[in-house]
Amino acid sequence: MRDVYTLGTGQTIFGKHDNKTVNELGAAAAMAAVRDAEILPKELQTAYCGNIYGPANVVQSTLIRLGIGKIPMYTVENACASGSSAVHLLHRDIAYGVCDIGIALGVESLSAYNKKFGKGLIGIEGDMQAKLSLTMPSFFAMLCNRLMEERGATLEDICYPSIKNHKNGVTNPFSQYKKEVTFQQIMDSPMIADPITLLQCCPQSDGAAAVILCSKEYYKKFNQKTQRPAVKVAASVISVGSAEDSSCDPLAQETNIRSAIKACEIAGVEAGKDIDVVEMHDAFSGEELSAYEMLGLCPKGEGVAFARAGAAAMGGRCPVNPSGGLLSMGHPLGASGVRVVADIARQLWGEAGTNQVEGAKVGMAQMLGGVLSGVDSPVVAGIQILTK
Amino acid sequence: MRNEVIFHSEALEKEGNTLVQMGFRCDACGKTSYPVYELCPFCSSGEGSKTPLSNTGTLFSYSVTRVPVGPFKPPIIAGYIDLPEGTRVFGQIRADVKAVKTGMSLKVETGTIWTEKDGTEVIGYYYTPCGKEKGGAE
Known about the structure:
Largest sheet of chain A: 5 strands, mixed
Oligomer: heterodimer
Strand order of the largest sheet of chain A: 1-7-4-2-3
Helix content of chain A: 25-40%
Strand order of the largest sheet of chain B: 1-11-10-7-8-9
CATH architecture of the largest domain in chain A: 3-Layer(aba) Sandwich
GO molecular function, one term (chain A): lipid binding
Organism (chain A): Desulfocicer vacuolatum DSM 3385
Mean pLDDT of chain B: 93
Shape of chain A: globular
CATH superfamily of the largest domain in chain A: Thiolase/Chalcone synthase
Number of helices of chain A: 15
Structural class of chain A: alpha/beta
Radius of gyration of chain B: 16 Å
Distance between the termini of chain B: 43 Å
InterPro entries (chain B): ChsH2_C, NA-bd_OB-fold, Thioester_dehydratase-like
Keywords (chain A): Lipid transport, Lipid-binding, Transferase, Transport
Number of strands of chain B: 11
Pfam families (chain B): OB_ChsH2_C (PF01796)
Helix content of chain B: under 10%
CATH topology of the largest domain in chain A: Peroxisomal Thiolase, Chain A, domain 1
């Protein structure tokens, strides 16, 4: 396998863009990435796009706006891990020598989705459990209840990631929310699924993100930003769950744990020691609290202590979601898996501004996607580890 | 005459006059899956037999959703119910929310779970408490 380098990143501000189409959003992110990489759009040899609810041919109708055609392009759907999957496939193409440079794009307009289907909690269409009211909040409410029963988490612990991430998001220019929240405000916001209140949930968002990856040869020849340290995508893993039975536990999500272990092995890093920064799927505050141990940032059963010690906060052992995460940045579903990789690249380049984790050398980008009947949920986990 | 439909075609089968949750007991791995798929979802074997699921189970974890979901009005109590054969089923629980605790015993019942605008009754399964309860977090 060949080494794969990050050459450029771009994204739109996440939030409500109901006057923009997915093509406009996607093209804005792709333009920003091409400019950041300082290449001509015609250099790109392939394109992958993460998207869930967009129209057919979303990647082609987006990239033609930059004069990009004739190259192989694919739109990839893997629920909230769609963007991670786009990055993964591009990484694979370059690692195995299929091409030397390409773009991974992610785009979503929840405003367009809501116009079509109306607002409300979303279950997976046609799924048996979804028909009986299984939604993301109900699944993660069960996870929060498990955290309280099995890990001794209090409501304050459950709300902690939301407080921390909203604080981080205040200074992120791309963030949907730019305000801090207190425990009291979180608990006073409307109850969605006990104990998850509205301010423990990520918002619905529109937006796009893009990452340009390339081979070492291409990087050496064409990288213009010589002041930037070279940042590699040292590992990329997509894991899918298997049949669900009574041994499954939301606190020990098999896909999440397996992909983290495998990604660390490939990258040759030890999660609890070497990873300096994480951007992850915090669709719900309690979800992030449960993930510290699953990602290997701390030993099993010690996630609550990890949080209480401030290890996941800015200035802590391993800041998690310095961008503000999905909770503050927003979550345009298909885009988030690309956005987390772009954010980790910016961290390792030292270009994360006021959200910079000082001295970050190794970072992890993670996404989870989907809850389904009969499959151990979440259904898909995507993890990339970047190093410099 | 009342118009009735089952909420999900694979979820319930008629056995005599009653509706049952039909599972598949795999001879190769011994696991019971639900609903019945083309092959065993645990091991891909096709060897085994259709068998009704146990009608009682234990509540593994649950949620109380406070906003509407599709045709359901809040509060919606729902959870994962673990059956003696090791199968996990997701279903709604009809009970006083204060009486619901993880680890409690539940039994399955079938009946109307929602009514369409045209009066069609949608038939499904749900769980109700059974037996004396002990322990568990609220």
